[in-house]
Specification:
Structural class: alpha/beta
Helix content: 40-55%
Strand order of the largest sheet: 3-2-1-4-5-6-7-8
Order of helices and strands: EHEHEHEHEHEHHHHEEH
């Protein structure tokens, strides 16, 4: 895939995309480039002020873009259900679901539903959203895709299926790694179930490498391992801009031939053109995928009953 960039995105006219966390960084660029290629894009963001500002900015950058803001708080299952209900009332089909939003290396906290914050936002909120939007994705098939945005930091830790609430010995970066492993396990299990059902839907994953975004800045502000000075140095030496960090997601969402359970990242790990990415062996474990799936259905109350194991 050397040389692949946003100009290689196939025409998206007539297609509808939902991008979570689209008000800044990787999510904003992903949404903008899909809109530039003709897609109708829903900017699904927690903050109404930032989401509406992103919509205005995007319309200025891409004249004629079909974009709209819709409020979505992935840390509140009530908000997830409201978003999915409202989307279903407005749209009969969904071609692309980009599960991009996330939080990184936060101090211990809980979501509105009592989940550990990083797992709750990064995985459980997206698990619920995907299940609730599945009928709209099926209506758009073939050609519909789900892309879960993980991270190279998934290599920090496997999920602890016996302590999903992380009530013992919390470490913020390990918790982040667990949530990003959960993104990949979810993709793996979703792909297996699509294949078993003979569904044309594709579930893939991507990661941006090290991109200079508000996510890293937020980790530094909240007292994470990265200090403000360390973040600035890392950005200067390693980070690529958000416009390049979004390319693996855009490739996974639009490039021909992306298969079930593909994991796309920068060619050189932290930076570079999109390419198949290394992933930890535990993200391909069928039994762990099934256990996480069952726990996620129980915790969120969202069932994928029509998909066989």
């Amino acid at each position: 895939m050397p040389g692949w960039n946003a100009t290689k995105i196939p025409d998206q006219s007539g297609r509808t995309a939902v991008v979570t966390g689209a008000n800044s960084g990787i999510g904003y660029v992903t949404a903008r480039e899909l809109a530039r290629r003709g897609a109708r894009v829903v900017l699904a963001c927690r903050s109404a002020a930032r989401g509406k500002a992103a919509e205005i900015r995007m319309r200025a950058e891409v004249p004629g873009a079909e974009v709209e803001f819709a409020e979505l708080d992935l840390g509140d299952l009530g908000s997830v259900r409201e978003f999915a209900k409202a989307f279903g009332q407005r749209r009969s089909a969904l071609d692309l679901l980009i599960n991009n939003a996330g939080v990184m290396a936060l101090p211990y906290g809980r979501t509105a539903d009592g989940f550990e914050t990083q797992l709750g936002v990064n995985h459980l909120g997206h698990f619920a959203l995907t299940g609730l939007l599945l009928p709209r994705l099926r209506a758009a098939a073939p050609g519909a895709r789900i892309v879960n945005v993980s991270s190279a930091f998934h290599a920090l830790a496997d999920v602890d299926l016996d302590d999903l609430a992380y009530e013992h010995g919390y470490r913020r970066w390990i918790a982040y790694g667990r949530s990003k492993t959960a993104n990949l396990l979810f993709t793996h299990e979703l792909s297996r179930r699509f294949a078993a059902a003979g569904s044309p839907l594709v579930a893939a994953a991507a990661h941006p490498g090290y991109a200079s975004t508000n996510l890293h800045a937020g980790a530094a502000r909240d007292g994470g391992t990265l200090s403000a000075r360390g973040l600035a140095l890392a950005n200067d030496l390693v980070a690529q801009p958000a416009a390049r960090g979004a390319l693996p997601t855009l490739y996974a969402a639009t490039a021909p031939g992306v298969g079930q359970d593909a994991f796309i990242g920068p060619r050189f790990g932290w930076r570079g053109a999109p390419a198949p990415s290394w992933r930890a062996r535990w993200t391909l474990d069928d039994k762990s995928g099934e256990r996480l799936w069952d726990a996620s259905e129980k915790l969120t109350g969202v069932s994928y009953a029509t998909l066989p194991r």
